Amino acid sequence: MPTGLNHPEATFRYRNYSTLIALGLAAVSICAIGPIIGPTPINWRTVFDRTIPFAENADAQIFFIARLPRSIAGALVGAALASAGVVLQALFRNPLATPFTLGVSSGASLGALLVVTIGTPLAISGLPTVALASFAGAVGAISIVYVLARSRRQGLSTSILLLSGVTLNSLFSAIIMFVQYLADYTESFQAVRYLMGNLDVSSYTPIVWALPLLIVAGIGFSWLPRSLNLLTLGSTGAAARGVDVLQTQRIAFLSASLATGAAVSLGGPIGFVGIIVPHIVRLLLGSDHRLVLPASAFAGAAFLVTCDVAARTLMSPLELPVGVITAILGGPFFLWLLMRTK
Question: Within the chain, what is the greatest distance between any pair of CA atoms?
Fold first, then answer.
């Protein structure tokens, strides 16, 4: 009788956990290397040379001020969107669900766009008002969708959740177009740049403000894997196996929405991360959410930081919005996924 690593199940687990560790190491490595790469070459040793005053160390200024914040933001946004995609696909039992399905992204975009067009260059406690307005719009969208989907008899209806999210997406998109129509050229240009998705984070303040929200979402994600595994059997099957379906739905919805709102407030509506990464991870590791969820977070961080490096370097000195890179990669992948699902 096969034992140890010769047993097929043990070999399968060993391979999966090795892949998970490899993804984690790849994410850390890419996030460390990302700030070094750019149109202006920098010397790694000079960056950490304490004998040179920081005010005179151009390499250190480029690394710590211009590139490191956006690499950290890219890692957080990528991990948040990929994890939210995994959770929502399990919640809706739909492989094509994305973090933007529930209208959170369009709500956040509308909030940011209103600030851009109204023109409020002030900051509250050091946080730019665009990020605050973006997160406020996301919270507003979350609240509307949750109220619409909540039922006293049936708990949280995933079908109404999905329909209300799609409806809000259309409504907010129409309002966004109307606001853009009323804006002048400068405001329209800023709005378009934001809507393309951009990791042009020039300080650590927005990251510090987003961290508590992402930590709360991460705690919710950590509670979900076993329940999500059983929820894929259907609500009735999951309840029969001891899962509190309503509580799982609430935590999944709120955690994914909170992660998406925080991510959009940092980098704008960067699309396709939440659908590309989870499906690639499932091809590697299978469907066990105990592995898929953390692996997607690692892979999402690595993927978005890589895309950001490409956005900074492909057409240097011109810098592309990172959302353009993810869309170029995600569009064909989405079509392939549709064909494969069909």
Answer: 75
